Structures are given as structure tokens and as C-alpha cells.
Amino acid sequence: PSSDRLESHPLLAESANPNSALLTLMRAPVGDGFEESVEEDFDRMVLVLSGQGVATLAGQDHTLSPGGAALVPAGKTAALRVTEGPFEALTVRVRPLPGARNRDPVVVKTSELPTFSLQDGKLQVQILLDASSGSSAALSILRAEAGANAPPHDHGQSEEMVYVLQGEVQMTLGEDDSVAGPRTAFRIPGHTDHAMEVTKGPMFAVQLYLPGGPEQRFKAGKRVEPVHGGE
Questions:
Q1: Are residues 160 and 188 in contact, defined by beta-carbon separation less than 8 angstroms?
Q2: Over 70: is that where the pLDDT of 228 sits?
């Protein structure tokens, strides 16, 4: 990676239509970012992983720090200027919900969202953006200890995209086994049996469902409210 210019690294595209959903890793130096732009046919998401930036969404400024995420609806302008580095973010482009126009941008912070605790606390999930935000896709953060697992299952029509930042996950996709370590992205097509187990923890990953819906099962876990003023 370069330290003196913006970088954009496409990671995954939706299998049925690569132009419909795209997960990208972005890096940028302080003072850089992207100029004001608008997507008429796509919603955009951004999740800051490190550093800090000021996002101007539909004319309003919002400071985004690690764990801060924004949804920019189709037809709304967005710009980003990096103020602290090293800056890294995941961006998502996805088709909006049918008939969902003229929405306002949404900004969330993990420090202000509940956590859902499952498997005796081995798995912690925060749902950042979903249908309640007006999004067709669902963006979540997963934190897990070694031994956390998901037995064989599928998500119906929903595709799953995961970007592992820390730890290691053993993946079984159909009859194929693989290992996803740090800085590994993988996609699970809809109607596909798969299973996962965290083999090295702590694991930290970003998860995207297209369309959203399967993430709602995490709400069956124990709901832990954020500590006021915490990060």
C-alpha cells in the first residue's frame, strides 16, 4: 500500500449481477478522500476501520471514526476528506430497496449501538445498517472467540460477504474446506450450504448480507446496551 495517494481495492461483487453490489477496501492519506459525487441508481455505504474522516452527506458534515458507518441513499451527494491517518474504510455499493427514494443519509456509531451476545458470549454482533435504516443490504460487525461456530445452514436468496480483519475462520462451503485469515474476503452465494468455525481468536470481521434479513437472527442473543459515553 502507498502512503501518498488514495487507493481503491475491489474485494467482492454479487455473483448474480456484479454491477449491483460491490465491496471495496479504500485507503487514503490525510487531506485526501473523494470529491462530492452522486449515484443515481445505487445506495452507498462506508464503514471506517482506522483513522478519521469528515463525510459531507447531502450537505451536512459528519465525523466518522473507527466503527462509524454511513448510508448514502441513491440520488444524495457525498464527499469524504481524511483528517487522521492511517485511514482505511470499507465501501459498499448496492441497489436500493424498490420504491425507496428521497431518503436522508444515515450515520451510526458502534459506540451507540447495542451488541447481541450469543454462544455464551463467544460471539458478539453489532448490526450497523439494515432495513430499519432504509437499506436493502445489512452491514454488521462480528467479534468472536475461538470455538464460536455456525453449523451447516444457508440463507435462502441472500448472499453473504465477509471480510476478516483479525483471527482465523475455518470455512466449509458445500464440500470444500478453506481457511480465511486476516485480510481475507469471501462470498457465499445464496441457497448454498455452509458452515464456519473460529479456529484462532479473537476474530474480528465485517459481514454483509444481500439482501438483508439473515442478520435478524442475531437478535435472539442477549442484548447488551452500550455504555454511555463509551467507545
A1: yes
A2: no
Rounded to whole angstroms, the Cα distance separating 169 from 147 reads: 10
Tell me how far apart the alpha carbons of residues 82 and 26 are, in angstroms, rounded to a whole number.
11
Output the average pLDDT for the chain.
89
**How would DSSP label each residue in 90-105?**
EEEEEPPPTT--SPPP
pLDDT digits (tens, 9 = 90+) for 91-122: 999 888 877 677 899 999 999 999 999 999 99
pLDDT mean over 148-177: 91
Sorted by sequence, the CB contacts under 8 Å of residue 116 that are 6+ apart come out as 124, 125, 126, 127, 218, 219, 220, 221, 222, 223, 224
pTM of the model: 0.90
Q: What percent of the chain has pLDDT over 90?
A: 71
Sequence letter at residue 143:
R
List of residues 6+ apart from 229 with CB closer than 8 A:
none
Q: Facing residues of 150 across strands?
A: 196
Taking alpha carbons only, the member of 72, 218, 109, 223 closest to residue 155 is 218
Query: Per residue in 34-48, is it b (16+ CB within 10 Å) or e — as a string?
Result: beeeebeebbbbbbb
Distance between CA atoms of 19 and 12, rounded to whole angstroms?
Answer: 11
Strand ranges, E, within 119-183: 123-129, 138-144, 149-153, 159-173, 176-180
